[in-house]
Amino acid sequence: MTAYERSRIILRFADLLEQHTDEIAALETWDNGKPYEQAANTEIPMTVRLFRYYAGWADKIHGLTVPADGPYHVQTLHEPIGVAGQIIPWNFPMLMFSWKVGPALACGNTVVIKTAEQTPLSAVYAAKLFHEAGLPEGVLNVVSGFGPTAGAALASHMEVDKLAFTGSTDTGKIVLELASKSNLKPVTLELGGKSAFIVCEDADVDQAVELSHSAVFFNQGQCCCAGSRTFVHEHVYNEFVEKARARAMNRSVGDPFKVGIEQGPQVDSDQFEKILRCIRSGVESGAILETGGDRFGSNGYYIQPTVFSNVQDDMSIAKEEIFGPVQSILKFKDLDEVIKRANNSRYGLAAGIFTHNLDTANTLSRALKVGTVWINCYDVFDAAVPFGGYKMSGNGREKGIYSLNNYLQVKAVVTALKNPSW
Ligand code: ADP
C-alpha cells in the first residue's frame, strides 16, 4: 500500500472514531469506571487528534542521502520493522491504543495489540471502525487476554519484531526479559512513576492547589504521571494544606455516568484493596490524615479523596506508586534540597513546577531527572509532544516525531560510483 493510502485510511478511521465518540466513551466508562464526561470530552478527542497527527506523518517518512567519503552514492531507507507487538494497560484504554497503533501503522507495520484484561471493549470496537475505514484484514489484530498468558506469548514470540509495553515497572522487567530471551526484539517501555509537583514560595497558591489536586486525583489517581509527591515551600505550606484539604473534600464522587461527577470507582477490587492498604500504611507511619482515608459509601470500589500532610521521604506513601486518589504533601525549605529529594526516586517520569521566577523554573527543569517537566501547568498532553521516562519509568519516547523511530528500521544502501566526478 502506498504511504498516501495509509494516511487516508487512518484519517477515515479518525473521522469514524469522532462520529462514534458517545459509544466509545460509554465503553470506556463501563470497563474502567472513569467519568463518562472525561472520556467523551477529553480522552476520545485526544485519541482522534493523535491518529490525525500520525496520519500526517505517513507520507512524510523518508531516508536521507549521505555525503560519505569516497566514490560512493549513499542513501538510507526507513523501512517498517514488521510485526509490532503491543501491550497496553487499563487506565486509558483508547489513548494507549492510539499512542501504540498510530505511529506503528503510519510507519507501515502490522500490529498485534493486547488490551488489558480489565478493559477489553473499546479496542475491539475501534478495530471494527478501522475495518470500515478500509484497513486490510490482518494489519491490525486485537487480542483480549491475560498478561502471563497472552501478554507473555506476544513478548516472547519469535515472529514479533518489536514490542511496545505500557504498564507497571515489575511487568516491564518481565517483558524485557522475555523479549531478550526470545529474538532480542527491541522494546520500548512506559512504566510507573512517583512524580514531584513542586510549589515554590512565590507560586500562585490557589492555582497550584487546583492543579496539584487534578494532578493527583485525575482518573481516580490511576495515572502513571500522577503528581503524587506534592512538595510545598514552608512559607506557603500551611495555607496550601488547608486549601488542598478543602478542595479534596469538595470533589464529587459517584456514578461515573452522571453529569458533573469528577471521580468514579477504582478499576477493580485488587486496586481498591491495594490503595486502602497504602492509606493504612500512611496513617501507621505518622503522616497526618487531613481528609478521606476510607472507602466512599458502602457499594462499589469508590475511595474517599484522601490528603496526607507531614509526609516524610522515607514513608512508603512517598516512595511507592499508589495509583489512587491519595495526595501526599511534603514540606521543603530551599531549591537544592527539593531537587535532591525530588530526584531521590527510582522513577523519573514527570514533574510539575509552580513559580513565576524564571531562574527557579530554569534551574528546576534542568536539574530534575524526568521525561516531562510542566511549568505552571500539569498533564498537558499533545500528540506532537514526546512522553516517556528516565530511570525505572521506562525507555524510549512515545508521541510526536520521536515515536516514529520506535517503528522504523534504517537500512544504509552504499553504491559504488562508476564515474565519481559526476
Ligand atoms: P497493573 O498492575 O497496573 O494492572 P500490569 O503491568 O500488570 O499493570 O498490566 C499492564 C499490561 O501488562 C496488561 O495488558 C497486562 O495484561 C499485561 N501483563 C501483565 N503481566 C504480564 C506478563 N507477565 N507478561 C506480559 N504482559 C503482562
Task: Write a concise synopsis of the structure shown.
The protein is 41% helix and 20% strand. With 422 residues, the chain is an alpha/beta fold.
Architecture overview:
Helix 2 (about 20-30) runs antiparallel to helix 5. Helices cover about 40% and strands about 20% of the residues. The model has no long low-confidence stretch (mean pLDDT about 100). The strands form four sheets. Strands 10-11-12-9-8-14-15 form a seven-stranded mixed β-sheet, sandwiched between helices. The relative contact order is 0.14. Strand 3, helix 4 (about 95-105) and strand 4 (about 110-115) form a beta-alpha-beta unit. The protein is an alpha/beta fold and about 425 residues long. It binds adenosine-5'-diphosphate. It holds the Pfam family Aldedh. This is Aldehyde dehydrogenase domain-containing protein. Keywords: Oxidoreductase. Belongs to the aldehyde dehydrogenase family.
